Amino acid sequence: MLNNALVAHEVQEAKTPIRFVLDNVKKKATFENIAVVGLGYVGLPLAVCLAEKFKKVAGFDISKQRVAQINHGYDATNELSKNVVEGSGLIASTDASSLADASFYIVTVPTPINDAHHPDLSPLQSACDMIGPHLKAGDVVVFESTVYPGVTEDFCAPILEKLSGLTACEDFGLGYSPERINPGDKVNTVENTIKVVSGDSPETLERVKAVYNTVIKAGLHVAPTIKVAEASKVLENTQRDMNIALMNEMSQICSKVGINTNDVIEAAGTKWNFLKFTPGLVGGHCIGVDPYYLATLAEKVGHHPQVILAGRRTNDSMARHVADTTLRMLIKKGGDVGKMRVGVCGITFKENVPDIRNSKSLEVVDALRGFGITPLIHDPHCSADVAVAAGYELCTADEMSNLDAMVLATSHIEYTNDPSFLQKIQKDGILVDVKGVFRNSDEAKALQYWSL
After folding, report:
1. Cβ(17)–Cβ(203) below 8 Å
2. Can you tell me whether residue 342 is helix, strand or coil?
């Protein structure tokens, strides 16, 4: 039996917080009691993976509907099948007391921006407010939510310390491990993607590594500090945003000189070091949001982020560019634009996902409405209730017919794999194929065609 007095003596000699010595003696990774706070498209897949390996995994979310769905095996984000959710044994709850027994907390709440494009850290604060009262000496809290460097230690830690009466890096450990979920991607899943991990001490880092090593098949990358790990996440998505912005700007230039952007990209792509990004609408809650977190940090330290914000302005302008182009083509076609049948296909923020948050496709719809057009809207992945709650009414596939113009805003597989899809457009009609998925089809060549 372990002699606590002996352990205490060893702690004093090594100048290591007692909690970690006790943990190293008494615990192995699989004995951690884990709580995942936030069960969205990031938290649920991770919680399910953990529940398959650990005996005690508590899932927490503030949405009663979301929790009820998960407990019935249903994932509204379509990331996981019913068999996977049910088979994991994960139990979700909206009761904060379910966090009380945890020794290892993982926070996966969203980190959006407000109307002024500034970071909204209120979900993080709420998560810390719930965890703090239950935090015990020896616990570890890991954040996965996308933030700018410093948020974990300078924003989250003080809240946890105040509510728990404990001190970070002395009484409890802090870690940061940025999420890398790609919604709709069934190949690069949480288990198959290298995980960046970090901790506020070597002891915390070992705990973090032990937990994630249990479920991440692709392996871990250890960042030297929490701030480095935080910065790596905002850099990932900012880099992608900037590359797409370049392609979007190039598409506008190509349009003015009468050449096809995709032809240019294919030619340039023959160079060994060319990165084949393509133009498109950049929405959602990652690529279109995270650069503002990096920009906020830059401004905090006295640097004006010219490239980052220029790229954001370009990408934020593309929905209006698509709508303006559609209007010009309708005017050129002739007739009363307000009476024309215009269909917008796909309103989720990306292909084959149900999420409409920050969707630029909806901005296209709004812009067309501003021109006096009442577009028909269709999406096979977005639920009718979600659309109505956001102020949009979906039509059926049959109602989407005899169109003067179709805007293929989000290229769901149901559209791209259906040979008869373009027959919904009149013979002299217009196809605004935002991402150019039909650029080589004979059906598209028979229409008035445009793509980015």
Report:
1. yes
2. strand
Rounded distance between C-alpha atoms, residue 237 and residue 181, angstroms: 12
Active site residue 345: no
How far is residue 393's CA from residue 62's CA, in Å, rounded to a whole number? 27
Closest Cα to residue 291, out of 237, 230, 249, 226?
237
**Do 127 and 135 form a contact (C-beta atoms < 8 A)?**
no
Residue-by-residue DSSP string for 293-338: HHHHHHHHTT---HHHHHHHHHHHTHHHHHHHHHHHHHHHH-S-GG
Torsions phi, psi of 59, nearest 5?
Answer: -105, 130
Exactly one of 254, 286, 345, 382 is catalytic; name it: 286
- Helix (H) or strand (E) holding 34, with range, is strand 33-37
pTM for the model stands at 0.91
| Distance (Å, whole) CA 179 – CA 146 | 7
> Which strand ranges, in their side-by-side order, compose the sheet holding 425-433?
376-378, 342-345, 403-408, 425-433, 448-450
Q: Please state, in angstroms and as integers, the Cα–Cα distance from residue 53 to each residue in 49, 136, 160, 214, 406, following that order.
A: 7, 23, 28, 7, 48
Distance of CA 436 to the CA centre of its chain: 24
Closest listed residue to residue 117, CA positions, set 365, 404, 333, 315: 315
Residue 399 CB coordination number (10 Å): 14
**Would you write out the chain's pLDDT as a tens digit for each of its 452 residues?**
334 333 333 333 334 444 544 444 335 566 899 999 999 999 999 999 999 999 899 999 999 999 999 999 999 999 999 999 999 999 999 999 999 999 999 999 999 999 999 999 999 999 999 999 999 999 999 999 999 999 999 999 999 999 999 999 999 999 999 999 999 999 999 999 999 999 999 999 999 999 999 999 999 999 999 999 999 999 999 999 999 999 999 999 999 999 999 999 999 999 999 999 999 999 998 999 999 999 999 999 999 999 999 999 999 999 999 999 999 999 999 999 999 999 999 999 999 999 999 999 999 999 999 999 999 999 999 999 999 999 999 999 999 999 999 999 999 999 999 878 999 999 999 999 999 999 999 999 999 999 99
Instruction: Select from 271, 282, 307 the least CA-distant residue to 360.
Output: 282
**Cα 6 from Cα 85, distance rounded (Å):** 45
Helices assigned H by DSSP within 76-177: 82-88, 122-131, 151, 157-164
Instruction: Identify the burial level of 228 via C-beta atoms within 10 angstroms of its C-beta, where 0-12 means exposed, 13-18 middle and 19 or more buried.
Output: middle
